[in-house]
Amino acid sequence: MDDLGFILLSYLATFGGTAALVWQVLRRGRALARQLPDEDKPWI
Known about the structure:
rod-shaped
């Protein structure tokens, strides 16, 4: 039980970093999608 703080902090850093990266990629993707005209968006 001595290492519980280190383990929890490691999980928090891992999942927090992953969440921050996902948030940044999604935000950048939305910003880039707004710049494209509709005819260049095959997903619409």
